[in-house]
Structures are given as structure tokens and as C-alpha cells.
From TrEMBL:
<feature type="domain" description="Immunoglobulin I-set">
    <location>
        <begin position="42"/>
        <end position="140"/>
    </location>
</feature>
<dbReference type="InterPro" id="IPR013098">
    <property type="entry name" value="Ig_I-set"/>
</dbReference>
<dbReference type="InterPro" id="IPR036179">
    <property type="entry name" value="Ig-like_dom_sf"/>
</dbReference>
<protein>
    <recommendedName>
        <fullName>Immunoglobulin I-set domain-containing protein</fullName>
    </recommendedName>
</protein>
<dbReference type="InterPro" id="IPR013783">
    <property type="entry name" value="Ig-like_fold"/>
</dbReference>
<dbReference type="Pfam" id="PF07679">
    <property type="entry name" value="I-set"/>
</dbReference>
Amino acid sequence: MNLHPVSPTGADGKILSDKRNQEIFHIINDKDEVREPSQFGFVYELKSVNVKQGEQARFEAKIRLVSKTTYINKNLLNVEWRLNDVLISPTNPRYCFGFKSDECRYWLDIRQCEQVDQGVYTIQIQYNKLHDESSAYLFVDSKFIKWNYQREM
């Protein structure tokens, strides 16, 4: 179901002002375009990563947080990272969280990846009542140690 602005008339038959017009929506159907005053979500979603054991991995996302009608305080944006639906603690030294607020880019670095780091990583973003998430998989290739030995003769 999509919402579209319509041009309603007031009780006196006059068309309501543009500002008031933008606040009134009419349900059309699922095939029509949605016009919303706020845009929220991911410009670039997380992508799956494949690393060798012991290497560093990075997940990065860019979000869209735009409103044509209200001021948006990016400091109120809540960002959480999860591994297999478990919140990653910001105090864990294996993880490094980063962001560039002016570009709306957020990343998570995983230092010295091990097999236990393999799984689904999710970034969840929330601003007021708006929320979205993006997920990707980390594959960690095991190191195989080659044993060289000589036969005794």
C-alpha cells in the first residue's frame, strides 16, 4: 500500500495551502510511487567478506537520512552492530567501530579474524520511529599448516 499527496479542499471549497496539502495523504495502490517527506535507509548496504584466518575484515555501510520538512540531528541516530543477532560490545578490543558523520558512513573492523568470527554481521540503524538494517556474511578461511618431514633411512 502506498501513500500519495492529494489536493483536498477545505469546508469553504478552496484548495488547502501547499504546506497543509503535503500532510494529507491518499491511499492509491501498490504500483504507485511513494512520496515521503523523510528518506531513511541504506545507500550502500553491507557486502559479504572472505578473509584468511588472522587477517582483518571490514564491513561498511552508507546511510541516507534526509528530511525535506524537519531538521535532523545525526547525533540522535542509534547504530548497533550484531554478530548472529548478538549485540557486539563496543568495549571488545577485537572490534573497531568507525564512522564519518558528514558522509553518513559507518564501518566495523574485525581484527585478526578467527573461525569464531565467521557468521552474519548486521548493522541496525534507528532514528526516532524509523529503523532499518543490513546484513552480510563473514567467511574465514582456515590456515592449513604444512608439515615437512623427512623419512629416516
